[in-house]
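batch_manifest entry 22 of 60
target: Protein-S-isoprenylcysteine O-methyltransferase Ste14
source organism: Streptomonospora salina
requested by: lab member K.T.
priority: normal
notes from requester: please return tokens only, no post-processing; we will run our own comparison against the previous entry in this batch. if the run fails, retry once and flag.
--- input ---
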Amino acid sequence: MFALPLYVLGALPPWPPVWTAAGVQLLAPALLPGLAAAREFATAGRGTPLPYDPPRRLVTGGPYAYVRNPMQLSAVLGYLGCAALFADPRLLLGAVVAAAYSAGLAAWHEDAQLRRAHGERWLVYRTAVRAWLPRLPPWPGRTPATLYIAGSCSMCSGLGGWLAARAPVALRLLPAETHPGRPRRLTYASAAGVRASGVAALARAMEHIHLGWALCGWAIGLPGVAGFAQLAADAFGAGPRRLPGPARPAVDREYP
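--- output ---
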């Protein structure tokens, strides 16, 4: 999305390398909601951002629990950030075009389409979640997901206590001993069919705390990052564990 305009314009950052590196790091979080939204379309919506293959169900999890237009928001912020990073005001045109298209034709078309497809559920969601300004806590109106945490594992119990203390939104914390499959890792499951285990499950759980932790979770969920983080966690003792017989639950709480 950004590489082609930068190539065509021949834009190069005029700043010292250390400033450029700092600018890239500041720009990266703005792109995370858009990347996570594309993943959410595929995993929860069973579709893509493309008009001819839209999601089959209303997607309200992941970045969509915070803002209705995460992809468009990331695009606008990305162009604004690139304009500053490359000191090229021509890139501001990309932000203007992306915002105008998203707030105009796309919003009108998508609103009508979603209203027909999902009716009252879409209207309730649209009322609660803003199009461009993200919420700080995620929207609580969706069906709660579940995080299974082993009560027989002291490390897992500590993690469960840490999560419980932050009162995650629309997330149930249940003992892994109650899971029919008796998972060997931390396991996340949502009503939309999203499944994750280990570090990826923790990243998903972070999405239920607030926007700051959600950004961390989306970063961990990037391709390659979750796998590397899982290898590191396993190396430090957070590898898979076989559940013993029935154990006392570490956490058994549900948050709205």
